[in-house]
Amino acid sequence: MTSAPGAAVGARRRPRARTPIWFLIPAAGLLGGFAVYPLIVLVRMSTSDVGPTNIIGEWSAVGLANFAAAVADDELWAAIGRTFAVAAVLLVSNFVIGFAAASILATGGRITDAVLGLLVFVWALPPLVSGSTWKFLLDDSGPVNTALEALGAEPVSWLASPDLALFTLSAIIAWAALPFSILVIRGGLLAVSPELVEAAALDGAGYWRTQLRIVLPQLRATLGILGILTVLYAFKSFDFFYVTTQGGPGTTTTTLPVLAYRAAFSDFQMSEGATVALISMLVVAVFAVPYVRAVRREEQHA
After folding, report:
1. 3-class DSSP assignment, residue 50
2. Strand pairing partners for 199?
3. Which terminus of the chain, N or C, has less C-beta within 10 A?
């Protein structure tokens, strides 16, 4: 069945509806007020000499002196290293444990539904709540050490030991981030064509070969985006550090967000805190650009 030529011409000549530009004013106002303006203040503070005596008043410009001092400070590089260490633990946890758990949960059933509900509950917990819970559990006299002593083992200073504190905190953050990665990978697994898996089985491919040669290549885009989000999550994680160790013992768990907080709100060196925060944002931007490009490619291929 074909449409009339006149109707087709009329459809082509119909003017395209355009969204009035003033519809964007509320969104532009919110973006400017809550994102652009604070960023401008942050940049201005990082290039000025701001302390508790002149936080309200005139800020004298110092150029890039704060950045030069921050780059020459070994503590900044140590904080960057700790942040990347947290990101490495998160990547291993999200990819290895997340893929294994998502593969198990890819099959339906009541148990799967119950586990998925529990994962959503854990994922939705505020970091302050879950961090406080872990701090209570891992305290020197907490339930975990009490259980170890009951089994005849020595208690462990999970959060007070300089050698263990960063690893313990990384494990807590990985625990909090794992539900999101499982849900994302499970969604990718459900999108893999069952015909491909069945064809591989008919060709004699075993489970691991099917996962490596068929399933993982299908998840390449999903895992790439998840990896970038995981690194971004590590660089913005602050709540767990603030609740459990506040960057200690010493500076062994001081990552970039904690270092910025300490400089600005503990030492009241607002310029130093703003400089560290801006450096952290620049590092995050390096990973955010590939993420935005990957999302655009996904939208174009959808």
Report:
1. coil
2. none
3. N
